[in-house]
Amino acid sequence: MSTPPRDPAELTELAHRHLWMHFSRLGAFGADTPVHVIARGEGSYVWDATGHRMLDGLSGLFTVQVGHGRAELAEAARVQAETLEYFPIWTYAHPPAIELAARLAELAPGDLNRVFFTTGGSEAVESAWKLARQYFRAVGQGQRHKVIARRTAYHGTTLGALAITGVPALRTPFEPLTPGAVHVANTNRRHHPLGGDEKAFMLALTDELEDRILFEGPETVAAVFLEPVQNAGGCLVPPEGYFPRVRELCDRYGVLLVSDEVICAFGRLGTMFGCERYDYLPDIVTCAKGLTSGYSPLGAVLCRDFLAAPFLEDRASFAHGLTFGGHPVSCAVALANLDVFAREELLENVCAHEAGFRARLEDLRDVPIVGDVRGAGYFQALEMVPDPGSDARFTAEQREELLRGFLLPRFYEAGLIARADDRGDPVVQLAPTLVSGDDELDVIAAILRTVLSEATDRFCS
Hints:
Helices cover 40% and strands 15% of the residues. The protein is α/β, with parallel strands linked by helices.
């Protein structure tokens, strides 16, 4: 017998009592405060438990690439669960993990041929750092244990990944963190003194990276972790020549280059992997989210052949594993998800609509609160400013009222799921499903104009 659906009021009551929502201020959900309960989805839209429809302009959380409600992905999960619901890939293997590993190796650039499965992005980043450290120990460079990442960048919440993360507010409650992670400047042009000079900006950033490697001692640095387009801070794109020079520096000093593509892989930037968009070959790619379009949890670490070489000798083993890494149901869903990518030409859809999406957002620059537009593919951000004619910034209290007090509830009411984030300056991020076309992009632009115009009236001088 199926359980009859509960009404929205009962669901809210149960959520207040029992559900600990992630990255959420539980004190904000008092007994009289409704909880937004998302009950179903179809295509680019979701509905809450009251029947209110919203365009999902964030793909859940940069995740639901193929759209909501895809029966073929649910069917793939059902068939696999009936065939082999679970078996670990510790010594053993199963067909979905084998097939998916081979598929990813075929899709990935260069010799990224080895695939280590996890259950999500944080675990992928954590696993990549562990792999780098054990690899260097295996080749006689055990002093290489440090990593370099960028300020404001988000790389995950497990203690190792959190150490790589460059967001102080997320790090401070859990210190001391895993030692060995240090940070350099990110690629935010708007707030860099050389941001208007592409080459000078690129050289300043990469010179700082080289200086940091030399300061730490190249013999102690294992890896550099970078997103192709940085999420936290608001879709920060690299200047021209940035990644080729980073690659050259890593090669010069024997440091591994890790491309953290938990968000940027699987079509978000219009390419299967984000590194392809910016024409560099990393030593390791971390990914998750779009690998299954969120229909089942799965992450992966893709690495070049030479990184696996020490573990092919004698009795060597990478001393790491996860109970649910490479879960057969998740792997079957990922394979079906990639079939949708190929059959419906989703990469081509993003490339065909990217310019139009960006043009719609650029048109919003006439709304005074919009100070910047940046991003790539279906991964774009608008930075909010109090006065477009100056370098003024919102205070912490103003950001709080703008983002959480006004924009988030107003977007919801207007029928749009977007991200209002202040891990750097306040931004609104958009990451529509990859099946979105002109109709959906028009809806996003229209709601943005309405709500941001209202915000201008309330928050701009």
